[in-house]
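Exercise: predict the fold of this chain.
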Amino acid sequence: MSRLLSICCLLLLASMLIGTTNAQQDGNSSVKVKTSLDGVLSPIGRQVEDFRLLDFRGKEHTLASFDRYPVLVITFLGTECPLVKLYGPRLQEMAQEFEKQGVGFVGINANSQDSMTEIAAFARRHEIKFPMLKDLGNHVADQMGAVRTPEAFVLDSKRIIRYWGRVDDQYGVGYVRNAPEQHDLKNAIEELLAGKKVSNPVNTAVGCFIGRVRKPDPDAEVTYSNQIARVMQKHCVECHREGEIAPFELTEYSEVAGWADMIEEVVRQQRMPPWFASPEYGHFGNDRSMSAEEKQLVYDWVESGAPEGNPDNLPEPQTYVSGWQLPQEPDFVAPITKKPFKVVAEGTVEYQYFFVDPGFKEDKWVKSIELRPGNRAVVHHILMFSGTSKNIEQDIRQKFRGGTGGYDGAYVPGQRVQPFPEGAAKFFPAGSRLVFQVHYTPIGSEQLDQSHVGMVFADPAKVKYEVRTTSAVNPAIRIPAHDPNYRAEAGSPRLPPQAQLLSFLPHMHLRGKAFFYEAVLPGGERQTLLDVPQFDFNWQLAYRLQEPIKLPAKTRIHCVAHFDNSEANLANPDPTKNVRWGNQTWEEMLIGYFNYMIPVGSQIQKVQDPVIARVTALFDSLDNNLDGVITLDEAPKRFRFLFGPLDINGDGKLNFEEVKALSKFKGF
């Protein structure tokens, strides 16, 4: 199961890039999205004609040069497709397994955007030993009917295609299984070796479209230089650039043109750019979604053959801080471990905690924080906390509830770093120590990680607001097996006076389905803040309000989450299991993080009586639907024996005054 967790990181973009026949379409469009089977005649039974291709070393290969193999596997690969990176080593293992049985393996790269140098680097990096050939002009891909990468063809001794499609069923759009359930390619090979007819000869390949050579329309109105480069800069280049999380760059014409079909598909299916907030509620400054006009520009450009246009019309290149998403070079940088941490190959790695003394001799105001993983393949998330007491572990438990109640900084898959609003910053008092909670996920081979933290300081004289992070959390979730729409709620602590909401970060695991935020005002009025109707675990997005929302004191944030524990959820690790709260990804969480700011120097109103303060905190933590009473199903099982004695009016509910009776118990 740990392998499942780690692959989710690598599939952060793979889940968005691989094709499907059932993906959601753009709006009400009836346009059929291309897959390996759409509009392509099956090549099963077709004899492959001889070809002549060079490998990355310059050696020439023909189809006849593999005559010594009675069974030949030809797989179309690319250098940057996330699924190819996952399947490359697996294909090499299969090549070694079947070599003595007379099975040959050949890789063909027909991508116009992949150079010989890049193919050589790919083969070296993934230890591919079988020949890797370059199909210039994609002539062999056209002859065989190849559409995507990775896509496998199995040829018999007469070089007739007997199998066409995927390697296995482990990966799909938005899901990854712990292990394959159907070994399609391997089964086809074994059946041919046994002299049998392939029982399942066609299985739709998922993956990236082959970047074919195009014939651009010279009279096209939409060109890369004039419009598409600007769309890419606005929505894509932030991630699709050197050193960032995306698996390939989209900064130059040759790169973008090579991915044209793939770009059209993921835009049309609303898989890219990643954005899941319903447009009905709220306005967000980091909204990544494309407008209808921008989408149409992409469609028209691809339809016209992806013309380059006049390079003189290109926009000025965007500039970024090298190695960071921060708006400027960080004022403070530190590794979160003294030496690289070794992540074991297999098993479950419990949360790791690393302590750093930043040497803050004076108070610090921080306007931007980035936690940068050293090895994204194994770092699932990082949370940063701070404290000043000698018992910093107690600080974390009380101030942040171990991470479920807030944090000072965070890295989660898909999150982009943005500074706090002008004049707002987080406060770190002199003498603060930093604690980093890291969730590592083994990937089948031993790995090393040394992650870093970077901070941009603010001028204390210019800071008008202090930013704080808190949450609505419900650790009492109990999701029944096979339940397709389990509903659970959570409520936050009461907001202090003059609070202004800044952003939201919903958090669930693989069964997460939808997430909803609303503000419940002191008078009971409710205001919808954010609706995420299709939560995607692979993208832990923060939703930053375009303008802060002012809320009265004692307002609470109410969150409603839905979970899909059925077989229909392809990401579900095991629909037969009842699921409870837990740290690991196959368990579940319900946390509605949010940021708010208050004026510097303002005092949070405190209840004078500490007992009443504890009663208020207890009542708020149990009143998950924020209706002002606690029902029996909201009460933890260990407290339910007290429910009857506390329910003075016998209405089956506990109001605040009834819960306050707990204060009479010794030790409360």
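Check your answer against the key: The CA atoms of residues 628 and 655 lie 7 Å apart.
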